[in-house]
Amino acid sequence: MPKRIAIIAHDGKKGELVEWARRERERLARHQLVATATTGRTLQEALGLEVACVRSGPQGGDAQIAAMVVEGRIDAVIFLVDPLYAHPHEPDIRTVMRLCNVHNVPLATNLATASMVLRGLEEE
User: Fold this and answer.
1) Is 14 annotated as a binding residue?
2) Does the annotation count 62 as an active-site position?
3) Domain for residue 20, yes or no?
4) What is the residue range of 64's domain?
5) Is 103 assigned to a binding site?
6) Which of 62, 75, 82, 92 is catalytic?
């Protein structure tokens, strides 16, 4: 059964995300993907995946995804955070992470965990 997966990646992680998504393309294509604007466009252009896009992270996209988590409309979040760079929208980043924990939604912040989450969703 297809799941709804939210994907967010900071600019410094988008290249890694695309490489990972190429390897996981077949699995990703089985699910409904939603992403922040730039991340979603990057995946659409690089892999031809269908991705529903919300606003960019700094313009409220992280908050939109957080709201979807609260509403039960997201089954997992892949949020590739660049830990070596300060982010002006840090409160929104923390909100997504906190709400995933509050609502028991799997959250991957690195590619190793993202692969495990993706495989785990297929077992449900």
Assistant:
1) yes
2) yes
3) yes
4) 4-86+110-123
5) no
6) 62
